[in-house]
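Bug #77: duplicate submission created two jobs. Keeping one. Sequence:
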Amino acid sequence: MTDIMSAWSALGGDPSLLARVSSVVREGALPARLPVRELARSCVGACALAGAELGARRASLARTPAVRVDDDAVATAFVSERRLLVDGRAPVLFAPLSRFWRTADGWVRTHANYPHHRERLLRALGLPADAGPAAAEKAFAERAALDVEDTVYAAGGLAVALRTPGEWAAHPQAVEIAARPLVERGRLDAARARAFAPLDGAPLLPAAGLRVLDLTRVLAGPVATRTLALLGADVLRVDAPGLPELVDQHADTGFGKRSTLLDLAADRRAFEELLAAADVVVTGYRPGALDRFGLSPEALAERRPGLVVAQVSAWGAYGPWGGRRGFDSLVQVATGIAATEGSAERPGALPAQALDHGSGYLLAAAVLRALTEQSHEGGSRFVRLALARTAAWLTEDARMGEDDGKGTAKEGAAVEAPGRREERGGGNGEPGGRVGPEPWLGEAESPIGRLRYALPPVSFDGGPRDWARPPGPWGADPAHWL
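Kept job's structure:
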């Protein structure tokens, strides 16, 4: 089931704490054939509960703070990249060559937002570097979808053939994914129990004083670290100087963080100094890509006992696609989601990059839960998520037709179920109790301009309501901890 109970169980959480969670259900939020609204609500709720649990532990509270999840707040945050305005300018979400293309026998979707991915795609198609969509469209139409997928992948680019749910279920990668838990969790050593500094004052910041090395890129990893920053962590994003981040992407996910540039080979000493004082390392590159720098969970924990290492990838660190690059839009196409959400004429898409955002909040929750467990039991920890495994969770209930947000309770009534309490939005706003995104949008001046942005949906009694700092220019901060 795509609900908070299954998410919280995957995180190893105490089921009795689910009684502290309530939801405001708003009809029409994140509309889709698949239970996207339920997935989004569950991921955010589990993350907020993990934060409240750690906050209660550190502040010696007698009771875990109550968590409240509002579907409109969640829906706004799950499209945060679309809500962003920088000096009134809307962001560019997808480049011209990032889209669906009809092939000789079906459809493919490509991702070419980054210049190096665009160059590799065009090279794989035999097109010049300045080719546009018209030339690409002709090239795709002459090839079979699986041929495009294989050829572009071999060139280091990103293209995935459209598959039905049944076709994906028979794929060896899907078989591997189905055998894995939603959240992979483990202990790496017998490091001593973590001793936290006590918390006092308001707001309650569960991650205050913790240092997070952020080695992530679009989009799940940055969402996770943005959430840890909200909860008080000193998050330092580290990028390679030769791999610039997209400006709008950085603005959307850079709240609460600082950003620095390091060449992991040439600047090894600077990185090791950061690692020596880090509490958490979060990576979002394809599996194995950072291992040559000594950044596998085992190698990191050996140098920094007591560390929490969090990893997120597109396809998982296993199976025939374990080393492949990927993005939310491509995972939707491979796993049958695009076929389910589309029509006979054309593939579709979810109303948000829900695999990215959902996995991001679950990854942050997994880090918070690992920190809580360390305070009791010690041990360096690793946690892992994969967008394709989150997709499998989303599609588990497809045959059931409707998510539980379409029950029979009257508007405004509470719906009691094991481990949760739901309340229907009603009386104001749009039909079905929706109030829209406006209450969940903030504005702030920043070094990169005046920003309109989605406020964080993670909320618990006494917790923060906004980030402590807006994003600054990419790579502009020094490589040291505050």
